[in-house]
Every structure is written in C-alpha cells, then in structure tokens.
C-alpha cells in the first residue's frame, strides 16, 4: 500500500498586530493552534481553509495568499506525517452564537511575542514557523494552486 501524508490546511489571520488562534483540547491537553484542519474528500484547499476557519472560530475567512507548504512528522505518533498548506487572509464577518467544533475551547487574539511565550503549549512547531514565515513576507499567489478534480 502506498504511504500518504495527512493533508491539512491552516490560516494566518492578523488584525491590529494580533493573530487569531484557537485553544483546543487534544488528547486531554490544552494547546494553541492556528485555525486548521484536514482536507476533506472532494474539497479544494481554499474550500477547506474557509470551512475550517468557520467551524473553529465562527469567522468567514477570505484567503489572499499561500504562506507556505510544510511537511511535519509527528514525534508523538511516528506513523503520522502532515502536509500542511498555510494561507494568509482576512476575517470577513463573525457569526456570533455559532457553535464551534467540540474540541475548541475558545478563540484568542495574541501578539507574536505572546505566542512565543507559549511555545510549550503550541500544538506543533508549525504554529510559530508559519507566523514567522508570514512576518518575513512570504506570500505566494493563490493561482499557484491548480485543481484537476473529477466531478462526481
């Protein structure tokens, strides 16, 4: 059988020098992450990141650029590798009162300094790596992504 990484997406959202993160409960541990999740069957990467941001934060998200593509091997589960596509964009409208995904405790806006102080509570090193790449100006046009999906 062919090995396949878990394809995930993540969103970098910055307003007033603060980044939107979620605090979530993973395996009984509270961690911070960008709004992120798995690509579902039949979705484009853009559809996935919009869906995940809505499900985890109740914000409509409009991606503007691709920050980077990251391959990450989970040190706690050696058989799991993630292929992460991280997007930068803006929040359009908040849907107050919308229930968030079950594992999400809360959303929180943090400065990059506050995020650095929480290194031990980040879900993975990709959280700070994606922010650093964004801050260094890494932005790639969304047209870089091409789709050749079969319609069902």
What are the defining features of this structure?
152 residues, alpha+beta, Nucleoside Triphosphate Pyrophosphohydrolase, 8-stranded mixed β-sheet, globular
Give structural notes.
- The structure is a single chain.
- The chain has 152 residues and is of the alpha+beta class.
- It has one domain (6-144): Nucleoside Triphosphate Pyrophosphohydrolase.
- The chain is 19% helix and 43% strand.
- Strands 1, 2, 3, 4, 5, 6, 7 and 8 form an 8-stranded mixed β-sheet that branches.
- Strand 1 and strand 2 form a beta hairpin.
- The model has no long low-confidence stretch (mean pLDDT 94).
Using DSSP, what is the number of strands? 8
So what's the CATH class? Alpha Beta
Biggest beta sheet summary: 8 strands, mixed
Query: Compute the gyration radius: what is it?
Result: 15 Å
Distance between the termini: 25 Å
Report the CATH superfamily. Answer: Nucleoside Triphosphate Pyrophosphohydrolase
Compile the SSE list and pairings.
Elements: E1 6-15, E2 18-26, E3 29-33, E4 36-38, H1 45-57, E5 59-73, E6 81-94, E7 104-110, H2 112-117, H3 126-135, E8 140-141
Parallel strand pairs: 1-6
Antiparallel strand pairs: 1-2, 1-4, 2-3, 2-7, 5-6, 5-8
């Amino acid at each position: 059988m062919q090995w396949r990484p878990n394809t995930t997406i993540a969103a970098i959202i910055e307003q007033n020098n603060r980044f939107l993160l979620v605090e979530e409960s993973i395996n009984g541990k509270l961690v911070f992450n960008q709004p992120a999740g798995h690509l579902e069957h039949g979705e484009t990467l853009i559809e996935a990141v919009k869906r995940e941001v809505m499900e985890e934060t109740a914000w409509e998200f409009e991606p503007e650029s691709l920050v980077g593509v990251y391959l990450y091997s989970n040190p706690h589960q050696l058989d799991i590798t993630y292929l992460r596509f991280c997007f930068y964009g803006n929040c359009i409208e908040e849907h107050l009162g919308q229930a968030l995904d079950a594992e999400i405790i809360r959303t929180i806006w943090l400065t990059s300094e506050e995020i650095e102080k929480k290194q031990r509570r980040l879900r993975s090193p990709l959280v700070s790596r994606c922010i650093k790449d964004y801050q260094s100006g890494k932005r790639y046009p969304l047209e870089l992504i091409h789709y050749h999906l079969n319609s069902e």
